[in-house]
Amino acid sequence: MAVGESQLETDTGSRTEVDYGWRHTVSTVMGDTTARWGFYIVAFVFLVSAYTMVDSNLARLTFGAFEDFTFAEWLPIFDHPERIPPPGEGESNVPPAFHAEGSMANPLGTDPAGRDYFTRIVYGAQVSVSVGVVSTLIGFVGGTIIGAVSGFYGGKVDDALMRAVETVYAIPPLILIIVFTVFVSGGSPDIIYAVFGVGIAFIPVFARIIRSEVLSVREMDYIEAARASGVKNRDIIRRHVIPNSFAPVLVYATLQIGVTILIVAGLSFLGYGAQPPTPDWGQMLSVSHGYMHSNVWLSIWPGVAILLTIMGFNLFGDGLQDALDPRIDD
Amino acid sequence: MRLLRYTLYRLLQAIPVLIGVTLITFVLANLAPGDPVRFMLHGQEVDEELIRTVERRYGLDRPLHERYLVYMGGVLQGDFGHSIHRNRPVLDLMLARIGPTLLLVVSAYAFALATAIPLGILAAKRRNQPEDHVSRIVALVGVSTPSFWIGIMLILLFAVTLGWLPSSGLVYPWWPPETYGHSGYGEHALETVRHLLLPMIALGTLQMATLMRVERTQMINSLQGEYVKLARAYGVPERTILRKHAFRAAQLPIITIVGLNLSTALGGAVLIEYVFNINGMGRLFLEAIQQLDYQLIMGITIVIGTMFVVGVIITDISYAYIDPRVTYGEEE
Amino acid sequence: MTDPLLRVENLTTQFFTEAGTVRAVDSISFEVHEGEIVGLVGESGAGKSVASMSLLRLVESPGEIVAGEITYKGRTIFGLEETADGSLSERPEMLSEEEMRREIRGNEIAVIFQDPMESLNPVFTVGGQLREFIELNRGLSKRVAREEAIRMLREVGIPDPEGRYEEYPHQFSGGMRQRVLIAMALACEPSLIIADEPTTALDVTVEGQILDLVDDLQEKYGTSFIWVTHDLGVVAEICDRVNVMYLGEIVEQAPVDDLFYETAHPYTEALLESMPRPDLTVEEIQSIRGVMPSAIAPPSGCRFHPRCRYAREACKRVHPDPRRVATSADGETHRAACLRHDVFESGYEASAPLEHATALSDREVERPPGGEGGE
What we know:
Helix content of chain A is 64%, strand content 0%. Chain A has helices at 22-31, 33-56, 58-61, 117-153, 155-170, 173-184, 191-201, 203-218, 221-228, 233-244, 246-270, 281-289, 297-324. Chain B has helices at residues 2-29, 36-40, 48-57, 64-76, 90-125, 130-144, 147-161, 185-223, 226-233, 238-275, 281-291, 294-322, 324-328, and strands at residues 82-83, 88-89. Chain B has two domains: 1-85 and 291-332, no CATH class; 97-280, Orthogonal Bundle (MetI-like fold). In chain B, helix 1 (2-29) packs antiparallel against helix 12 (294-322). By secondary structure, chain B is mostly helical. At the A-C interface, loops of A face strand 2 and helix 1 of C.
């Protein structure tokens, strides 16, 4: 008969079982206003970076058919992001919002080299998004393997791995990644080292989460049943443990993309991420740092772009969390 | 007594982590392709014989594990080696720079806690009301904005445009006022605060945003706790419930997060010191990286790792101080 | 009969949720006299806990007391009146929130909650929590309150009370914590203690000890109790009078012996049958058929009719209120809300039995003669 009672004793509805299906997840995420905005922002940033990625690789994608062609010729709002205009052409470098002399040809002004700032901001999305996604993926895959093994086998393997995780955790990621980037690249850092550095630095965090999920999944009856019926450990991990530990890690990964973009922006700002002339928001802030007093707008736009992008991932991640985990409140 | 025993226990636990930190640093520093001396010379053409001499002098001709043991032996005696570029002991260089970093990080946390706790409690108390929504937006923007960009924006607004606050450097309160030409301790204190304000906010905003949301969730949970119901049923005033009964138990996760986020804060200090021209460990690290001064890089990484570990131990001990269950080790 | 200590009339508490209005407590009336232990019995979800929290006006949002009257020692804890424009407003003599807090909660009506593990704050010492409540409710100084706290800990049978005063809740066993909560309630010297399933979380031997302790202390201090429980065994052991609740309503109200020997409501009957007893095997114990329906849309007529083996057509139509069906030897009233009793004149006898009821009564096993005593 009676087991436990709360203040609200009466059954307040028929919410007996929670539906974990994909359709449910999608409708919950899209039903939440903030999560929906997060999704729109993320989708927008992805679209923009997909467009720029195709555009800047058009020649390669079409095997040289469009050698000198860019979309910029169709869509005149974009200039070529790396084209430095001849003297005279890029002179009006003050954006119209800041100065009456500004021209709408450069809505956000131009950078010190005379390149259209709006175009460079748009093309900057590509670096941030791909860096965020790729390095999160590295952390995710690495962490899943280590965490699943560690959580599933337990004992000494687990102890050793967790000590290693704690150790990497002790060095601030930014410092660890700079050291990694500089030494591995032999003193000439580039974005690719940063991507791997960030990915590797976050393996421990993912491993830790996967591990605790695996530990809770491991005790479940169906794992016991699979073991008892002689399924190999590796197959149990692959077929049962990982899929069932997946949801919280997915949420974490979405939020982690935001963190990654934040860190890579810092790296590029210090000069250990994207290198000029690649348009990258952090790197643009690094350049504009020297013009902070004279050309204020140069420092504003890339930061706004970073802020909005990360905010998109955070909003979307929060929404995903609410949808996947009904226990979490708010 | 029980706290003392617990402290010793935690210190012992930290040893393997610290060894791990030195090991990672050492391995990373030796990942560079080619031999270290040539690497440090940025590819300049130097006489082969000279390189060999330098290698012998610094023991670089010996196998890696031997070098590690020698290095660790030195570290244990407080000898972090010698900076080749500056020709000074690494320890001296670091000691001269550690003060500003500690000042910056500690005040950033003070700022974060002083704002996050009251705002989090307010949001919990006024759940789903305008105050709560505002706190939610502040937190979201706070975790989504790069700290260095907040720094740049603060400089542009308060230093460049309004001219209210200085945009670079710190005033060290531990130096005598005369060093800065201050008339007395009053002016000295004021200038210290004026210089500290912007970098402190820039570094503390991320922490503030994170802590505020945690504080809110914890207070909501705690306020729904059975012991809060009991206190209400015994006529305890609502204010006392909020400040005492619900508050104390809710602070436990905050303490843990303060400890773990120290890692982010120390990393952030590198950026903030760069933006605000503060001569701390972060700037020293960037200079060392620029010069590929690898003795110095190793020293700094180890010291910063140690700062994190010590910070976590301090927060663990204060956790144990608040939550009696930890030290008795008999949690059900 | 003298004025009762507590009189509850037509108390109605509702929760306004997105799914609809939950009628957690629906027009219940009962009394508690000085020095007696009154049982409030029912399955979980019956509204017992909400009813008891309503007595302290501590129903949490979105719940709200919407009607009825609660009078305690002649003071109005809750009461509404109709204003000139026809809407309801609180009566002027109703105690303010501040008066409730200062004068009623703790020092007049104290509570003991179900879960002794969660009810004590893990980060304060047991003694400190006890002292705080004593200080607050009896206006004693810190020092005196501390002595009183230690005295009460001794009183409820905690060994070495001076030493344990300084300890934390996690260092106490479940039974010991429940003793602390009892000490807490008694130490504030209330006239009424609401015990909300205080022994449910404990194992049986400890439960027995706690019940004995409460029996002794009740005799010594003369405190009245409202004992909220789902366990009729406990009721038989300590209660003087019993109210049986089903879906927010009181369906039977009787002195404890009458309830067991002259059971007047089919729900009580079913509860008695579902009790584990040494003379029946597990197969022979009857569990109550079906689950309790939602209190958002309770069944029409008698709320128990879908699960009742005596249900007839009339039960779907007529909603019975508890009426006097008998008077016991010592002049106490026995009330029940069941149409089978003549006082209802609802045409029960004439109407046709419902299908499921026939099925239920077929299932009935041979019951041992001599009634269904829980002793």
